[in-house]
Amino acid sequence: MNYKEFFKKAQEKGITNIQITEKENHGSNVKMLNGELDYLNSFDSIGYNIKAEYNEKTVKLDCNYLAEDILDLLIMKSTATDSSYADEYLEKDKNIEKEKSIDIDVSEETKKLKELDKLKTNYKNLDALETYFTESYQNTRIINSKGVDISTNSHLSTFAVEVLVKDKEITSYGKDILTTNKKDINFEEFTKDVIEKAVIQNNKEKLECRKYNIILDNDVAARIISHLGIMVAGDSIRNKVSCLENKLGKQVFSKKLTIVEEPTNKKYPGYRLFDDEGTKTIDKIIIDAGKVNNYLYNVKEAKIKDIKSTGNGYGGIATRNMYVKPGDKSVEELLKDLDNGIYITDFMGSMRSAINTVNGQISLQVFGFIVENGKIIKGFVPAIMTTTIFELLSNIEEIGSDLVFNNTNSASPSILIKDISIAS
Amino acid sequence: MNKKDFEKYLNLAVSTGADFAELYYEKIYDKNYNLIDSKLDQIASNNSIGLGIRITKDKESFYSSTNDLTNDNIENIIKKMLKNIPEAKSKKVLLTDLVDKTKKVKIPHDLYPVEKKKDLLTNIDKIARNESELINQVSVSIIEQDRDFTIANSDGKYIKSNTVLTRICVTVFAEKGAEKQKEFVDFAGGIGYELLEKHNIEEEVTKVAKTAVEKLDAVDFKGGELPVVIAPGFGAVIFHEACGHGLEATSVAPKLSVFSDDLGKKVATPKVTLIDDGTIEDAWGSSIIDDEGNKTKKNVLIEKGVLKNYLVDQFNSKEMKMSSNGCGRRQNYKYATTSRMSNTYLAPGSDKVEDMIKSIKLGVFCERLSGGSVNTATGDFNFAVDTARLIKDGKIDKLLKGITLIGNSKDILNNVEMISDDLQISAGYCGSRSGMIPVTIGQPTIKVSKILVGGKE
């Protein structure tokens, strides 16, 4: 059923103000194991988030097809819901961005991945080399019964490398990169760097249980920072389940820390012209020199507070292109400043379990290197970092310049932090 | 889609010499009811239909998923996939008659009135809030899923089945001054609303509310290598992570598991017997057939410390020269199946919990674990302990803040010192190559002689 027919049928059934967020997603991913193709997958899907009014109630539904039974389900849901807030519907004056759908072909990258296997010959203890490449195109289109029809899209590529080094010890080490332009990826250099780090890390020793000065590399820092998005989300604040409740305008972190959200920045992979509710996205400062500067809202939470949505409605409240403002120092300079300490380059486990957004406690299994006199000496046996989000981000000494995006919602440069408890 | 359609697409899929082709057609109906702040916040629902197409040739696997089920689109997808298959002799696919393996539940989701569901949410909220004034928030959700699927493959298999899942999740939040804590409990099964008859929800929610309040006085703990006692039920995440994943053919077949060459060898203390059983009646991780159309089974993986079996899906069975044991699973049509756990548990022993506690001078009692992960290649694993208590001089003492346990698969299996007889099963989700799937994990209370406990100085 096309939109015209669907809207017409809806009207006949007494459903008004119907608005559909359509998400088209297609792409391919390929995995190579020791130079042999492990899998080549492709996917294409269209999903619909529908909201509408029936008997003066707002009803919402997700589905991946449009048919009459979906309209009947909307009607049935309206009798069950207690939702009393009036939702917003887009008027016909919004920005429109339309691009042709992109055909995705990963055959070139599949060849490049296969060729990377030759790098293994230079390292005798390299037991396995796994490489992954994913390319995807996503288009978000909002169409409603008031004649609105707008689109925003993204075209992203991810390259990931995982290596297994085995001699007396075993080390598994991996890294990935996300980019808006696959031509930016230097497959060989990236893979070499991962292999070399894995080899160094395999010569490892146990750390003494005590406080250390640490560097969180840009990937680990980004994944911790992403939880700030949950902590400043309007629903977490309203429901009193965030450790940043009642902290607006207060100094809670180091003055060296500024975190912004720039969804309108096309250079970064989280670029979106509008959120999934059709609210125009806006750039904002979330943490301003250590002070909580903004909470984030979707339409529902904004309505409850009688304010405007901040353009963070993606089903729940989420961020796009949120990142820590970089400093001037390279990783090498940060290592020099660290002098003696540890360089954390990876973690294992679910960050959701490891970071308690209600009270800010963090307990995370970490991997990385021992640094002596500013130089990476060897790896360390997996250890546990125990801290709180307040201690971690208040003890910041330096912020690096190496801002890299690995996902669409958050990013960070590497960060030098003092006095953090590590058990090994 | 009917039998003729399936046959047509399968014949196209094997027309250039593929070894094997499979079609997986699925309809999923999800519904979530969420209550927070004592109000029904939202009813979310998701209806989806889709098709997964898998074609394999030697060790290579090609998979495509789509929800555009028009004939042109499906044929185009298959033709694109065939560009990767070198030309060879085609074969003819003829499907059997449709085998129906549909599970019937006592109280289906649609027959349990919405008003009753709302009452259930509201009552749970009241029970928790009545426990203490320090409880400042309660979040309750009901998760319903009805999944119907049909599998047709080039071996002629043509079978349909379903899964019905119901889960109630409760999180209680407590606050005193600047201190905030939360505690969680859930009730889940591969059944409809008869789930409610199987649990004493009031008792469990009250207990959880009490613990949330008690945790407000939890203290920091200095980490180190210590003996631990792990409570029954979700504590088994340690075995799920520490060895379950390493026994899946996905990592065993390409020799990426620390257990790849250990079949028949002693890998644990003789006290350890580990079972994965997809047939447990009404369990959250059970199904009649797996997502490749094979009957699910009870698989004894480790018996008295000796590695007896792996979890083998159909694709990896060739490489492993073992037959599939009904553990090919996937989240939905967007994922190709691979070998996965279903209901994994440590068999009960005969030790007494009191003796475990008494035997420890300084250690930790892990009352509730929240999740974990493993690197199957190295065996390194971790898991987060949401509720932990100090064991001091043979007695359980105060609650501890923020604990994580880490270790290595092979070490932990050899450090299981005592196992009691109080086996309990808990539900959760497991994320891996074929997506997030419902699993249960179970164990009796166990004592591990030493493990690294992460704490704060």
Name the features.
heterodimer; A: alpha+beta; 6-stranded mixed sheet; 22% helix; B: 457 residues; alpha+beta; PmbA/TldD fold; 2 domains; 7-stranded mixed sheet; 9 helices; 19% helix; globular
Characterize the structure shown.
- The complex is a heterodimer of chains A (424) and B (457).
- Chain A is of the alpha+beta class and 424 residues long.
- Helices cover 22% and strands 40% of the residues of chain A.
- Chain A folds into 2 domains: 3-199, PmbA/TldD fold, CATH 3.30.2290.10; 203-424, no CATH class.
- In chain A, a hairpin with a 2-residue loop joins strand 10 (284-288) and strand 11.
- The radius of gyration of chain A is 24 Å and the shape is globular.
- In chain A, 49% of the residues are buried.
- The longest helix of chain B is centred in the first third of the chain and has 18 residues, at 114-131.
- Chain B is globular, with a radius of gyration of 24 Å.
- Helices cover 19% and strands 42% of the residues of chain B.
- The mean pLDDT of chain B is 93.
- In chain B, the strands form 4 sheets. In chain B, strands 1, 2, 3, 4, 5, 6 and 7 form a 7-stranded mixed beta sheet that branches. In chain B, strands 11-10-9-14-21-20 form a 6-stranded mixed beta sheet.
- The N and C termini of chain B lie far apart (62 Å).
- Chain B is an alpha+beta fold and 457 residues long.
- Chain B has helices at 3-13, 71-82, 114-131, 201-214, 237-244, 249-252, 314-320, 353-358, 409-414; strands spanning 20-36, 39-57, 60-66, 99-101, 135-153, 158-176, 179-189, 224-230, 274-277, 298-303, 306-307, 328-329, 338-339, 343-346, 362-374, 380-392, 395-400, 403-408, 416-419, 424-432, 435-443, 446-454.
- Chain B has 2 domains: 3-217, 2-Layer Sandwich (PmbA/TldD fold); 224-454, no CATH class.
- Chains A and B meet through strand 2, strand 3, helix 2, strand 6 and helix 9 of A and strand 2, strand 3, helix 2, strand 5 and strand 7 of B.
